[in-house]
Amino acid sequence: MITPEMIHLAYLQVRPSGKPWEEVSQDAKAHYEKMAVSLNEQHEETYCSEQEYVGEVLRTCVATGFDERFLLGVMGLAGESGEVVDLAKKSRFQGHSIDTDKVKDELGDVMWYLALLCHTFGFSLEEIRQANVAKMHRRYPNGFEVERSVNR
Ligand SMILES: [Mg+2]
Q: Does the N-terminal or the C-terminal CB of the chain have fewer CB atoms within 10 Å?
């Protein structure tokens, strides 16, 4: 089943006009719905479950034991996040265009270390996502508000 969120995600992958989603015509949205169907079919062919992904992380992890994996995880997470920041720095201050393939690659590296840390602490990525959503709903029930941010 194709959801409105899946159609919106298809749009975000292309975004040819740069228009906000609310201003996209119904004809264009029908096009993005077809894209979402196609992407969903591709997704089913290449889907990697969390269990499979963590298995790949552990297969390629050099650290063993809680202390080593915790240290590798936090250092790697900071380092790979820094690589994403570096792409932003080069774009803002050094005249580089943003290389979306590189951003995607570095976000994958961030995810590798995040998955390692979750596994090391016995959390699932899904559990972390759900807890974060619950926190956002508690903190910002009506979307982000400066008042709630300042007076937490
Ligand atoms: Mg990297």
A: N
